[in-house]
Structures are given as structure tokens and as C-alpha cells.
Amino acid sequence: MNKLLTGLVLLAAALSAQAAPTVFTPRSDLYDVSWGSIGLGEGTIALSPLQGGCYRYESVTKPMAIVRWTYGAPKETSEFCVVDGRIVPKRFVYANDKRAKDGFTLDFDWAAHQVKTIKGGEVSMRELPDDTYDRFVIQLAVRQWVIQHAGQDKPPPLEVKVVDHRRIKAYRFVLAGKEKLQTPAGSFDTLLVERVDEKPGDSLRFWVSPDRGYIPVKVQQIDDGELKLQMLLKK
User: Fold this and answer.
1) Phi-psi group of 168: left, alpha or beta (phi > 0 → left; psi -120 to 50 → alpha; rest → beta)
2) Model pTM?
3) How far apart are CA 118 and CA 129, in angstroms?
4) pLDDT at 7 > cutoff 70
5) Nearest partner of 93 among 82, 112, 79, judged by Cα
């Protein structure tokens, strides 16, 4: 009887581990994207595996024809590896077919603790602090943090550093509450994650759904108190 009970406990633990959400499960999600009150079109965020425990995380926006003419079709690609459960960025590329001057590349050299930036044909090197992410893969780091603290009402904030082509800046993310949201993909019970900025009126907000593997079902970028970018899960 004891052996049977032990076996059942081990089986339950194994099934629980298999069912546990992970940010590294390959997936592709479609969003409606808007800039302020203007609908831009659709955007896809996808995660796919590479070799050796590494991944590609990619965002592709497909604007409506009239918007594409002036706005273009921005694309962000992060390549990273997972080391001891940690996200280690390797390369980030931002490109836009209509605004080539805005494009840039980041190459992470963790052995030398340096990040190389390539923008407009110019190359620069900067010191790279530990636990630094690019501006796109930070979404996965936030999701991983939420999963780790999902059972807590007020977990400690997530303190991270984010690098882009201009600077490396420290950010803090907090769990700001729970909300029920309606999106084009349906209704979701969500956890609101908010970036706390030093500048009043600036923020980045993610509404993540436990029922959808803690992916964002809604994203908002707030600048100077105004809604700039919004993404709503479509399917």
C-alpha cells in the first residue's frame, strides 16, 4: 500500500511538472495593434527553438496598406539561450523597411561583459552589467518572474536592466493587481504587471493570462500620460 501511495504521489508530481507553464514553450500569438486611437493592423509574436538550449523570439507587425506606406513594418528579433533557468540574451535586431535609419543591432558578449551596438554603419562598445536584457526579450523575463511568484499577492519587484541603442537603464516591474479583460480572443482573468518609471506619466503594462501560459493578452505603452502603443490578443 505504501509503495502504491508513493507511486501515485510521484506520478502526480510528474504530471504537475509537465503541466506547469513555461515561458520557453514554442508558440505564436496574433494581436491587434494600435497607435493611440489609430489601428495599425496585426502583429505576431512567436517563440521558436534553436540549437543548444537557445531560442528566437520575434515580433512582426503587418500594418494595413495605408499605414504601411508611412509607418512601415517593424520587426524585432531576440536570440537568447537559457542557462541554469536564466535568460541570457545573445543578439537583438530591430528593422523597419520604411525607416531604415531607425534600425539597429545589439550583440552581447558575456565573456567580455560588453555589448556591441551597430546603427547606421557605426559600431560602438559598452560595458554590459549582469542581468541585462534587450527591450524585447524582457517580456519573457517578466513572464518568468510572474510564473515564479504567481501564488503571492505582493511579491518583491523585479529589478532588471534594459539596453537599447542609446543607453542601459534600470527598470522595476511590480504586480499591480488582477483584472478581467475582454479582448478579440475572448475574456480572460489576468494579472497586471506594470513597469514603474522614474519619469511620471511613463509606463509599460502587461496583462498576462494564467490560462494562456501567462502570455500578455494586452500590452500598453504609456508616454507622458498618453497611450501610445496598444496590443490586444486576437487569437
Assistant:
1) beta
2) 0.84
3) 19
4) no
5) 79
44 in a domain, yes or no?
yes
How many whole angstroms from its chain centre is CA 75? 14
pLDDT at 17 over 60: no
13 part of a folded domain? no
Per-residue pLDDT reduced to its tens digit, 192-215: 999 987 777 788 899 999 999 999
Which sign, positive or negative, has the C-alpha torsion 4, 7, 9, 12? negative
Which of 196, 206, 136, 148 lies closest to 171, judged by CA? 196
The phi, psi pair for 140, rounded to 5°, reads -70, -35
Domain extent, residue 34, equals 21-233
CA separation, residue 116 to residues 62, 79, 153 (Å): 29, 15, 39
Question: Within a domain: residue 229?
Answer: yes
Question: Residue 164 domain-assigned?
Answer: yes
The count of domains in the chain is 1
Give the lowest-confidence range in 5-14, 105-114, 208-217.
5-14
The CATH number given to whatever domain includes residue 146 is 2.40.360
Cell matching residue 230: 496598444
Contact of 134 with 89, CB cutoff 8 Å? yes
How far apart are the C-alpha atoms of 128 and 161, rounded to whole Å?
Answer: 10
Give the whole-angstrom CA distance, residue 6 versus residue 14. Answer: 12
pLDDT bucket at 16, cuts 50 / 70 / 90? very low
